[in-house]
Specification:
Distance between the termini: 38 Å
Bound molecules: adenosine-5'-diphosphate, magnesium ion
CATH architecture of the largest domain: Alpha-Beta Complex
CATH superfamily of the largest domain: PurM-like C-terminal domain
Strand order of the largest sheet: 8-10-7-11-9-12-13
Largest sheet: 7 strands, mixed
Number of helices: 9
Strand content: 25-35%
Helix content: 25-40%
Shape: globular
Number of domains: 2
Number of strands: 13
Structural class: alpha+beta
Order of helices and strands: HEEEHEHEEEHHHEHEHHEEEE
Radius of gyration: 20 Å
Length: about 300
């Protein structure tokens, strides 16, 4: 790495303040050092965003920095982990200081909000590619898995569904009278970290909704070898999403649109009264495989599986 690249990291990505006790050594040496408290495991995840695949060249860099970190923290949230630190690998076509300042502001503001330390990374030149590895702590043996849903479990969602999907429709030209909240959800997803941690010892299975409810709940069903029945009429929908459906007839949008980053989780009925977070029951896990959707009491054919890469 050249002097110029190192000073770039110093200028935009190095913070003196350490957010949490796990960080023993941060940016500057060959490796960072992390310590794990007694009784905890490290949850580790990584996600990459590539220009023209996940975002366009003219994307707002501050929002991009936020979203890159948010999608990684959302994966930790879905396991019930408390995020502690992240690594950032940047491949940049040029050193654009205005872009870097905005990107690091979006990234580090969200990191600071959740007391997450940026402890290292890599900087190379090439087509714009952004990769984060995020690490979090979870009490030993307690992580919320996709594979632990049981027949009879209630299925819940945090927050509301389809807002980010509506935000995308608005960006693509759909016009509605109150677009701000939907655009905000699309541009600045909010990882459900506190909700994930509050579900430890309560939820059986959990996933975050990145590719759409039917696709992501589908992962729980597959990994747990179970099926599910969903009630469309119970879906938590914002008024703007209801208006969009009434306007277009596209009632499946909240089921298949991605980017909401809410949590979908299952809880056995005996534990349902222990739930303290804002959530809505939308269905039930069943032993019969497959996903069945009821709308106004009628079984609906489900053929759309949400957004899938390479398909
Ligand atoms: P090495 O050559 O040993 O891989 P580098 O010269 O790539 O080390 O990096 C020097 C230091 O800067 C390391 O501590 C590394 O983790 C950190 N670093 C490099 N790029 C980034 C980045 N984009 N964000 C945060 N830290 C970074
Ligand atoms: Mg390196």
């Amino acid at each position: 790495m050249s002097i110029a690249e190192f000073s770039l990291i110093e200028r935009y990505f190095t913070r003196q303040v350490v957010g949490n006790d796990s960080t023993k050594l941060s940016i500057g040496d060959d490796c960072a050092l992390l310590s794990l408290p007694e009784g905890y495991e490290l949850a580790v995840t990584t996600d990459t965003m590539v220009e023209n695949v996940h975002f366009f060249a003219d994307a707002n860099p501050e929002l991009l920095g936020h979203k890159l970190l948010a999608v990684n923290l959302s994966d930790l949230a879905s396991m019930g982990a408390k995020p502690v630190s992240v690594l950032l690998a940047l491949t940049l076509p040029t050193v654009d200081e205005i872009w870097l300042a905005a990107f690091s502001k979006g990234f580090l503001s969200l990191a600071e909000l959740h007391l997450v330390d940026l402890i290292g990374g890599d900087t190379t030149s090439g087509p714009l590619t952004l990769t984060v590895q995020a690490m979090g702590l979870v009490p030993k043996g307690k992580a919320l898995l996709r594979s632990s849903a049981k027949p009879g479990d209630f299925i819940y969602l945090t927050g509301s569904l389809g807002d980010a999907g509506l935000g995308l429709k608005i960006k693509q030209g759909y016009s509605c009278s109150n677009p701000e909240a939907a655009l905000q959800r699309f541009n600045k997803p909010n990882p459900q970290i506190n909700a994930g941690m509050a579900l430890l010892d309560i939820a059986n299975a959990c996933i975050d909704i990145s590719d759409g409810l039917t696709a992501d709940l589908g992962h729980i069903l597959e990994r747990s070898h179970v099926g599910a029945c969903l009630d469309w009429d119970k879906l938590p929908l914002a008024d703007a999403v209801v208006d969009y459906i009434n306007d277009t007839g596209d009632w499946a949008m909240p089921l298949v649109a991605g980017d909401d980053y809410e949590l979908c989780f299952t809880v056995s009925p005996e534990k349902a009264s222990r739930l303290t977070i804002n959530c809505t029951q939308i269905g039930v896990i069943e032993s019969t495989l497959g996903l069945r959707l009821y709308k106004s009491g009628n079984l609906q054919p489900l053929n759309s599986k949400g957004y899938e890469h390479f398909s």
